[in-house]
Amino acid sequence: MRFQLAILPGDGIGPEVVSEAVRVLRVLSHFSDCEFICNERPIGGAAIRAHGTPLPEHTLQACLKSDAVFLGAVGAAEFDHLPTQQKPEAGLLGLRTALGGFANLRPVASFPAIADCSPLQRSRLKGVDVLFVRELLGGLYFAQPRGFDHEGDSAFNTMRYSRHEIERVARIAFEQARTRRRKVTSVDKANVLETSQLWRRTVTRIAEDYPDVKLEHMYVDACAMHLISDPARFDVVLTENLFGDILSDEASAITGSLGMLASATIGGSVDLYEPVHGSAPDIAGQGIANPLGAIASAAMLLRLSAGMHHEANDLEAAINQVLEEGYCTHDLARPGKHVVSTSEMGELVQQRFAEMLDRRFAYHAV
Ligand code: IPM
Ligand code: MN
């Protein structure tokens, strides 16, 4: 199988973590006929520097022609002065719109091996396995009108959702819940916002099509609290764009580091995979970034875009094994741990992944 991948390293630590994820994917070609053809293109600040725009046409075209897109991170302080539409982030938001993926899946689980890195007590971490389903193409991020007026003395954004936008992402959340513990927590601010009242009504109606899945509604402020006090109570958390952005970063603290989190954006013409962390300019280029969020995003790619479920499980097991062996990156450093660089962590995962694939394919051969 030939699999076309558009690779968009982007800014800051993006290139460092993306190259580790790509190396891990290449391990697969030693064990199967799966070949990843990688097409690298600039986005974000790197694209502004090279081509004067955060989403060059050749980058977009390469993405639209691919089987999946793999992105590192965008954002660089040197472009803070630019208007919103010219910033590095506009490249990512433009790409998301063009690809059409409206459901951003962000799994958050606790890893016993790095439980000490979590601010939460070990007892609270037991059984934590949350899947955020974040609406990605609507709400305050995109709706018009937006801008400044009164010569910059006031500013405005519009929160707008249509029933259609809510229905389609709600269905993804219920479908995902069916593969898990069959519970959806829909998060809104229906005591204040009309968009949230529509959200709640719509999700309640969609839930009728999934009688085997339990639905609960929760206000976003309460959700922020429950995520810390009792994260194990959640299975699938369904929410709108901005709430999902904020809550998923909050939830990453449960794992111990934002560097661990992966994401997949589905529902459009081409699926998009990216670690949840940003460009982290403060640690870029030092070889200390955590590549596991990017590598875990590659596992999601194997599962959701390449249909390689066993291999995806193997890759996640390889990540877990490396952590269990006591290895960690700078962000997870604790007494007694063996701190390794970005590329060393990548190599460790490659080795464990190769061992697992070796066992799997040897088993199938007999
Ligand atoms: C994320 C990021 C992006 C977002 C930024 C870089 C536009 O924070 O993927 O969570 O807000 O969606
Ligand atoms: Mn974010």
Question: What is the structure about, briefly put?
Answer:
By secondary structure, the protein is of the alpha/beta class. It has 12 helices and 14 strands. It has helices at residues 14-27, 45-51, 57-64, 88-99, 122-125, 163-178, 194-207, 220-229, 241-255, 292-304, 309-324, 342-365, and strands spanning 2-10, 35-40, 68-73, 103-109, 129-135, 147-149, 154-156, 183-188, 214-219, 236-239, 264-266, 271-273, 327-328, 338-339.
Number of separate domains: 2
Strands side by side in the biggest sheet: 2-1-3-12-11-4-5-10-8-9
Structural class: alpha/beta
The major pleated sheet works out as: 10 strands, mixed
Distance between the termini: 23 Å
Number of helices: 12
Roughly what percent helix?
40-55%
Small molecules in complex: 3-isopropylmalic acid, manganese (II) ion
Instruction: Give me the CATH fold name of the largest domain.
Output: Isopropylmalate Dehydrogenase
One letter per element, helices H and strands E, the order comes to EHEHHEHEHEEEHEHEHEHEEHHEEH
Strand content: 15-25%
What would your notes on this structure say?
- The chain has 366 residues and is an alpha/beta fold.
- The protein folds into two domains: 1-106 and 257-366, Isopropylmalate Dehydrogenase (3-Layer(aba) Sandwich), CATH 3.40.718.10; 119-255, Isopropylmalate Dehydrogenase (3-Layer(aba) Sandwich), CATH 3.40.718.10.
- It has helices at 14-27, 45-51, 57-64, 88-99, 122-125, 163-178, 194-207, 220-229, 241-255, 292-304, 309-324, 342-365, and strands at residues 2-10, 35-40, 68-73, 103-109, 129-135, 147-149, 154-156, 183-188, 214-219, 236-239, 264-266, 271-273, 327-328, 338-339.
- The strands form three sheets. Strands 2-1-3-12-11-4-5-10-8-9 form a ten-stranded mixed β-sheet, with helices on both faces.
- Strand 6 and strand 7 form a beta hairpin.
- It is globular.
- 3-isopropylmalic acid binds at residues 74-75, 89, 92-93, 245, 276, 278.
- Residues 245, 249 line the site of manganese (II) ion.
